[in-house]
Write a structure and sequence with these properties.
By secondary structure, the chain is mainly α. β3 and β4 form a beta hairpin. It contains 14 helices and four strands. The mean pLDDT is 89. The longest helix is centred in the first third of the chain and has 24 residues.
Length: 326
């Protein structure tokens, strides 16, 4: 355990402890109840993303001088890659903050995320997915001319999946902690720090936080897949993203079939269905425990394909049961 890093983190975050309300008023971005999808009793400040970006940018800068290794050093090989991660984090966060403030239309959001993702991938060639390797298929599928298309598509899918997954306190924050275990102490500390306020319903991530976290999660998963292909497969990525990914697929298809915009919000998400039967905290625990069990079980089962099919089937059976009226 790096106690100097912990001490530095606490020191940098003292302002949030002592001046939280002042910071919230200064930022002045709130999430208000609408009686449709949001039922909080009062407006909640959206400064979770500011907590993340404040720590990430601070330690990015300190990393040049103190070599703190905010990420596993195996994921960043050059200043160009470092710049890609740094500028990508800031741009996606700022775009999310603007979305919190002005509520962009879904098509505009999708287009801007596409442009920002293209920029980041062009800066860092190691974010370009060149092939697909499955644990249950001996041959590697080379993408060739489709590399850019699939790489950007993966980013876009994960951005939208995480956005749909964000709906109850603690859920996205702990999901991020789970992914970044053993990868970045700074991001884990930042998320846990945010979760302290989120648990007390004092702040939400907001679009700024979700966009930032989606970018970081996408970045680390794609980098890990590209650089560690000897033991990191497409099916493993699927299991890590199973619940957010299946949520995206189901909601996208259901909205299209109902003649709605596929990215227009509704109350048909998994967390909405769970809240109808359980308290929000129990809904979070059920989802988080399911993710932890599904990921760990993947490494214990030999037949990966059958296991993936089982996860998909179990998900849709669960949705069907939760959708039944009492």
């Amino acid at each position: 355990m790096n106690y100097n890093l912990i001490f530095l983190f606490i020191l940098l975050n003292l302002p949030f402890f002592f001046f939280f309300k002042n910071i919230a008023k200064f930022i002045n971005i709130y999430d208000a109840a609408d009686g449709i999808r949001k039922f909080q009793k009062k407006s909640i400040p959206l400064i979770g993303g500011f907590i993340l970006i404040y720590n990430i940018v601070s330690f990015f800068i300190l990393d040049f001088f103190l070599e703190l290794k905010i990420f596993d050093e195996k994921f960043i090989f050059s200043k160009r890659e470092f710049f890609s991660l740094y500028i990508g984090s800031i741009l996606f966060f700022l775009f999310g903050v603007l979305d919190d403030k002005y509520s962009f239309k879904a098509n505009i959001k999708l287009f801007i995320i596409f442009i920002l993702t293209l920029l980041v991938v062009m800066l860092d060639e190691n974010l370009l997915i060149t092939n697909l390797k499955f644990s249950f298929i001996s041959n590697i599928i080379e993408l060739d001319a489709f590399s850019y298309f699939l790489s950007i598509l993966c980013f876009l899918l994960f951005f939208n999946a995480l956005n749909m997954f964000d709906g109850i306190n603690l859920q996205v924050g702990f999901y991020g902690v789970l992914i970044f275990i053993n990868l970045s102490l700074i991001i884990i500390f930042s998320l846990l720090f945010f979760l302290l306020f989120n648990f007390k319903n004092k702040t939400f991530l907001g679009e700024g936080g979700v966009q930032l976290l989606a970018f970081l999660l996408s970045y680390i998963i794609i980098k890990a897949y590209n650089l560690k292909q000897d033991f990191f497969y497409v099916d493993e990525v699927f299991i890590i993203m199973a619940i957010p990914g299946l949520e995206l697929f189901r909601l996208f298809l259901a909205r299209l079939l109902n003649g709605k915009h596929p990215f227009k919000g509704d109350t048909n998400h998994l967390h909405h269905l769970l809240i109808k039967k359980f308290s929000p905290n129990k809904a979070f625990l059920l989802t988080f425990v399911s993710i932890v069990i599904s990921i760990n079980s993947y490494y214990l089962i030999d037949n990966k394909l059958i296991y993936i099919l089982f996860i998909i089937l179990f998900y849709f059976i669960t949705i069907h049961q939760l959708s039944k009226k009492d």
